């Protein structure tokens, strides 16, 4: 197997085959196998150039492809009625990940949130992870990732945090810009005020889209 840019080892081919089968079952009746494999392999390419541990590439590709396919389904009219919010920053390693964590914590299953970066990093900011853990929210399962056109098009609200002109813009979509300090290189102590302001804004956002916050 070969993507547009990369050769794939035998072990990763096996892992990607399993991922394609799972995604095909999940999106049965919505997308055909060829479409799913295309999304999976292009998602693999998104991470391959900057991956520090290549053994996780098939898993990252599967998770990102699943998100992209959900977005494409929404764009094509398969709407479950849940509002979708997209949080964007530069590296998708700090601010947008904390916002995603708070959104999922407070919204539960009543809304959907995604995050992305204009220049995705290689790992989540450890100070952001620690600051969120203090609030009982684990963001270690997340990973920096880019945004794609279908993800932006599917979102009802796009929240930008410091990515400026690199952030995507689609006319007619609701945008909010949150001027927040970048936690890159900051201590946990210095990240806490940023974290708390993000939670305040997330709760305000939930109210504005008609989603009751949990707990």
TrEMBL record:
Keywords: Arsenical resistance, Oxidoreductase. Its EC number is 1.20.4.4. SMART domains: LMWPc. Gene3D superfamilies: 3.40.50.2300, Corynebacterium glutamicum thioredoxin-dependent arsenate reductase, N-terminal domain. One of its GO terms (molecular function) is arsenate reductase (thioredoxin) activity. Residues 83-208 form the Phosphotyrosine protein phosphatase I domain. It comes from the Bacteria. This is Arsenate reductase ArsC. It comes from Nocardioides bizhenqiangii.
